[in-house]
Structure formats: C-alpha cells, structure tokens
Design goal:
Blueprint lengths: L4 H12 L17 H12 L3 E6 L12 E7 L2 H13 L17 E7 L2 E8 L4 E4 L4 E4 L4 H11 L5 E6 L1
Antiparallel strand pairs: 1-2, 1-3, 2-7, 3-4, 4-5, 5-6
Helix pairs in contact: 1-2, 1-3
C-alpha cells in the first residue's frame, strides 16, 4: 500500500545521490522538502551503513530495537551494490500485487549522528518498506540479489558484527 509514491521515489533518490562526493552545504532548493534534504545529507556523509536481522514474527517490530543481529557494513563495493539495488527498484510496478502480511527478514539503515534512512525487507512477500515514510513496495526483480548479499556477502570480510541477541 503506497500512500505517496513520490516520497518513496525521494528516498530512492537519496540512495542514488550517495555515490557522489560530499559537497559543501548549499541552501535547500525551494522544491525539496526539509526531510528530503536531511536524508540526502545523512546518506552523503556515509558514516554508517547497517544491516539488521530479525526473528520470525508477524507482530509489529521496532526495526532499530527488535533485531537479533546488527552489522556495520564497511566494504564499499557491498554498500554501492545495495544502494544500486534499492535505486533500481524505483520504477518497478508489478501488474499483480500479492496480498501478504510481511515478516521482516532484514533491515538496511544509512545513518549519521542520530539521523537515518531505513528500509525493511520481507523475502516471503517480496516487499520492501521505507520506514520513515511508512511506504511499501514490491522488489521481485531485486529479490535474489538482495538475498545473496544479505545471506552470503555480509561476513567478516565486509562487515563487523556489532551485537547478537
């Protein structure tokens, strides 16, 4: 259920702009919302990219507190792959939308000094959720690539395990 597709697209724009170098702060353009400007600043600083894993539950979760494992990703190529996958999903609109209650498997957060942009992933329902905008979207074309990265590429060579519960 996408309430405002432009908000989701704005979040994806944030991820696309991450690969650009950090620039001096300019006054916000009149057509950008303050929250979009804040999100762009958070991702451009690149001071933290985190992967969360969750226990299997259909109950609502707090994605920043109810995790079983939390990793800080440091391999730049993995971070770029994740950004590109999220960005490539922006144009995808399936002809058939399955009705499914998402069980969140993983979360991906771009964070700096208390500000963050976060996405949740349900592989059972092929659903990605932009947390701050409470927007849901299908990610079928990118599902296998996300799964491969989350399950097989996040390891001691690409990330640091911060906490395991």
């Amino acid at each position: 259920m996408i309430r405002n597709p432009f908000t989701f697209l704005a979040a994806l724009f944030v991820l696309l702009s991450c690969s650009e170098p950090v620039r001096e702060s300019a006054p916000p353009a009149s057509n950008q919302s303050p929250s979009l400007e804040r999100a762009i600043e958070v991702v451009q600083k690149e001071s933290g990219v985190y992967l969360y894993r969750y226990a299997e539950t259909i109950e609502p979760i707090d994605p920043r507190k109810d995790y079983t494992e939390k990793y800080r990703i440091f391999r730049q190529s993995t971070i770029e792959d994740l950004r590109n996958l999220v960005a490539s999903n922006r144009e995808y609109e399936p002809e058939f939308k399955a009705r499914c209650l998402p069980v969140w498997d993983a979360g991906l957060e771009f964070r700096d000094e208390g500000q963050s942009v976060m996405f949740l992933f349900s592989f059972r329902c092929n659903t990605i959720r932009y947390v701050e905008g409470n927007l849901f979207k299908d990610f079928t074309p990118q599902r296998t690539a996300f799964y491969k990265i989350f399950q097989y590429e996040i390891n001691d060579e690409s990330a640091v395990l911060i906490e395991k519960r």
